[in-house]
Amino acid sequence: MFRRWSNSLHDDQENDELKHEAKINELKAALGQLSGRSLKYCTDECLKRYLDARNGNVGKSKKMLEETLKWRSTYKPGEIHWKEVAVEGETGKVFRANFHDRHGRTVLILRPGLQNTTSNDNQIRHLVYLMENAILNLPEGQEQMAWLIDFTGWSLSTNVPIKSARETINILQNHYPERLAVAFLYSPPRIFEAFWKIVKYFLDSKTFQKVKFVYPMNKESVELMRSYFDVDNLPTEFGGKATLKYDHDEFSRMMIEDDEKTATFWGSSDKHKHGSSNGYSGAEVVAEPTSLAPPAS
């Protein structure tokens, strides 16, 4: 009986894989011919993320992906250089952690209480740059990142405007689908609840389910977070044992090195123009249009 159940489970897994592959090929055919940056961006893994975000609906996934390609061609997230947003990072309000979660995901640490600038547009560019960098540093086979948000020092005076929060959420949901695995909001002050009541309506159901509130006195929420992170890696600010240290000069050197890696990835020959990040925009690497759809058999 166990063998029959095991074989049945294996068959179900194979069927699911075949269905996923068929959906990806269907989306490829729907997209038609792509070239250059668009072709580079639209890997099978990318198409799967867009399909997952739209519950396997090829038409909706196609529309979403085409809107992303249009956004990337105008916003040019992969062409943001560290030197353009470095001022935003001086206090360490957002940075890539030096550890991963238990699943090998890149971790971004956000400390909104350390807000140091007034340009909402550049604040968003800074976050977009760091999301691109987080993706660049994902281990092979991993597609998602995790966020840890520390509310120490947060107040309404350091809070982002509702309009900027909505724009940030739209970018994350619409142009980085299925990139966020989980976001832990650690010990937010009670006054944050009023802001959250407004912001949560901008979140789609999938993103909303990924947001977890953690309170030190709530054992269940603490254990949930620790199921994602090794307590020895987790900074004390998040109830762990590690020391959280942000050195802006050192982090800047890392980002500049990563800009060079990105340029190499895209085949850019101009090292002075630090390129983009993993799987996104950059040099036009394919001259002729190429169809994503497999040849007809």
TrEMBL record:
PROSITE patterns: CRAL_TRIO. It comes from the Eukaryota. SUPFAM superfamilies: CRAL/TRIO domain, CRAL/TRIO N-terminal domain. InterPro entries: CRAL-TRIO_dom, CRAL-TRIO_dom_sf, CRAL/TRIO_N_dom, CRAL/TRIO_N_dom_sf, PI_Transfer_CRAL-TRIO. Residues 267-297 are annotated as: Disordered. It holds the Pfam family CRAL_TRIO_N. Residues 82-246 form the CRAL-TRIO domain. GO terms for molecular function: phosphatidylinositol transfer activity. This is Sec14p-like phosphatidylinositol transfer family protein. It comes from Actinidia rufa.
